[in-house]
Design brief:
610 residues; mainly beta; Cytochrome Bc1 Complex, Chain D, domain 2; 4-stranded antiparallel sheet
Length: 610
């Protein structure tokens, strides 16, 4: 009897362990503290070489793909610019898909993910609306207009949701918006509170803008997502650059709360405290990624962050004292402002830490910080504001010397900020970094490599080539006791390398057999070379809006040194089509996939009208 009882207890224990092992990825950075850490260890440093793709699902035809997927109840939820998709987290089978048609202008067609709460999903649209969707079927439950899309305002970041509220900020700082952070009732979409990131009147910080006219177009947008301490009710908001980004003289003063971590009361939106990374800023050094919360070895509550300025920061949350400021990439000409003659600054506009920020391993007391190593030539210009148009106050050109665009994964002591190790990627970073209890860190690069590093040493344990750049979330979870890794591939943006692909969701797992190829479209299809009719500008507009607008903007002027304005005077349609087929950096190669020769002709016909 005792043996039987023991056996039954053992079986019950095994069953309970299997049930307990099932995990989810419920928010953009896993927990609302943004640590991104996973306690899973089934995939570990000893067996990771057998990790391989098991399935994939196409999410969109083309375009920027930088979303952070969620995993809830065995379902992955992931977004494209206008698409929301639910797929089975074990075999990529599509459960439902919704496609949104914008009703207003589109500034930047990027979406970085959804929030989840009580059976509902929440996401922004490319024309400035916030939606609630039924997680079971994708049906729109409510929709509210948050921004004025005609001014270039957008909702690109992934919201977070907690305690009946959805938290979302406005993007578009490079177009001269006036940023704001908002909270909404999760049940109805009704606005609960708002905080202006460009203060005016009697708002605290208004005195930091000496030119009051500049506050109307001051920037201060939000890129990615947010961090919440559910115990203290502190909401940590990363705020982007001031506008015009390259001309400080137009907006003298400290320009609060740009380039800052702003800490708000999650219930009321009241300002609790802030930390400004950089002022003055005339080189576009945003704080783009969510801060991460943890306790250090002394038991202190710490907040760490990393910016486009190429530094990682650690602050004591109680005293607001800066504990460390560690360089994570090449720093050059720090503190200089653009001149009419121009100079090279490192990191540049697409350098440093962007939308995927630091992650924290509590076992190893280590921060993992991705950073891109890419410089820009900056030249001072005259600010000219036009609603919905790029508002730079100067021009920029990417460093095009060989191997100019690379990256780093930095491992820092989370108490002191001291570098433990660094892994050098041969192209830009952009994908998330995800540490696990298995002693591995998952990440990826713009050459389409899914990378697994040893958490303690930084040694490369696995490199698996995909056919599109990795620039979004990398998540891990278990279903029925089996651990999976899922991530996005196929990003097209000015932060990507020459490699392009189709936006695709990929799932990997441990296996000892043959693995199916993760195909993202053929680059050798003979049909791609065929032009069957003259260029169609109407169809070209649709293709441009799907892909090219991400870098060039709606009117082709988002990148001043690569402006498409009046392109007809410089290149006829045939020459323009030839350029698209065989471009120079930083433009990615889009032909023969995802664009066919006919697609190129159609786009050239449309762009010739700029």
């Amino acid at each position: 009897m005792r043996a039987l009882t023991t056996a039954l207890a053992l079986l019950a224990g095994l069953h309970g362990a299997a049930q307990a092992a099932d995990t989810e990825w419920p928010s953009y950075n896993n927990g609302l503290d943004s640590q991104r850490y996973s306690t899973l260890d089934q995939i570990n440093a000893g067996n990771v070489k057998s990790l391989a793709p098991i399935c994939s699902l196409k999410i969109a035809d083309a375009g920027a793909f930088q979303a952070g997927p969620l995993v809830i109840g065995g379902v992955i939820y992931v977004t494209g610019a206008t698409t929301t998709v639910a797929l089975d987290a074990t075999d990529c089978a599509e459960k439902w898909r919704t496609d949104y048609t914008p009703t207003g202008p589109v500034a930047v067609p990027v979406n970085r993910g959804v929030a989840y709460l009580d059976g509902k999903l929440f996401r922004g649209t490319v024309d400035g609306k916030l939606q609630s969707l039924d997680a079971a079927n994708g049906k729109v439950l409510w929709e509210v207009t948050v921004t004025d899309a005609t001014k270039g305002e957008s909702l690109n970041s992934a919201p977070i949701a907690s305690n009946g509220k959805v938290f979302m900020g406005t993007g578009g700082g490079d177009l001269g918006i006036k940023g704001k952070m908002l909270a909404f009732d999760a049940a109805t979409g009704k606005e609960v509170w708002r905080f202006n990131t460009i203060p005016t009147g009697n708002e605290a910080g208004a005195e930091s803008w000496e030119n009051k006219e500049a506050t109307k177009t001051g920037g201060g947008g939000m890129w990615t997502s947010y961090t919440l301490d559910t115990k203290t009710g502190e909401l940590f908001v990363p705020v982007g650059n001031p506008a015009p980004a390259l001309n400080q003289a137009y907006r003298p003063g400290k320009n609060l709360y740009t380039d800052s971590m702003v800490v708000l009361d999650a219930n009321s939106g009241a300002l609790k405290w802030y930390f400004q990374l950089k002022s003055p800023d005339s080189v576009d050094h945003d704080l783009a990624a969510p801060p991460v919360l943890y306790k250090d070895g002394k038991g202190r509550d710490i907040v760490a962050m990393a910016g486009k300025d190429g530094y990682a920061y650690g602050l004591d949350r109680a005293t607001h004292q800066l504990l460390f400021r560690t360089p994570t990439t090449t720093i050059k000409n720090e503190g200089r402002a653009p001149t009419p003659e121009g100079f090279m600054v490192c990191p540049g506009l697409s350098g440093g830490t962007k939308w995927n920020g630091p992650a924290f391993d509590p076992k190893l007391k280590t921060l993992y910080v991705p950073a891109t190593d890419w410089c820009n030539m900056l030249t001072l210009g005259t600010p000219k504001y036009e609603a919905g148009k790029p508002f730079w106050g100067g021009t920029f050109a990417f460093d095009q010397t060989p191997d100019a665009a690379t990256g780093w994964i930095n491992a820092l002591d989370s108490d002191t900020g001291a570098i433990k190790w660094r892994y050098h990627t041969m192209t830009v970073t952009g994908a998330a970094v995800t540490p696990t209890a298995g002693g591995v860190v998952f990440t990826g690069d713009a050459d389409g490599n899914f990378l697994v590093l040893d958490s303690k040493t930084g040694n490369l344990l696995l490199r698996t080539a995909m056919t599109g750049p990795l620039a979004g979330g990398i998540v891990t979870y278990t279903i029925a006791g089996k651990q999976y890794v899922a991530f996005t591939t196929g990003n097209i943006s000015r932060s990507a390398a020459e490699l392009v692909g189709t936006p695709t969701m990929v799932i990997m797992a441990l296996s000892d057999g043959a693995h199916p190829a993760v195909a993202q479209g053929s680059k050798t299809d003979d049909l791609a070379q065929i032009v069957s009719r003259p260029g169609d500008a109407h169809r070209g507009k649709a293709l441009y809006s799907q892909t090219c607008i991400t870098c060039h903007g709606a009117d082709g002027t988002m990148m001043p040194n690569y402006s498409l304005k009046d392109i007809k005077a410089r290149k006829d349609q045939a020459a323009l089509a030839a350029w698209i087929k065989n471009p120079k950096a930083p433009m990615p190669r889009l032909f023969p996939s995802p664009f066919s020769a006919q697609d190129v002709e159609d786009i050239a016909a449309y762009v010739e009208g700029f």
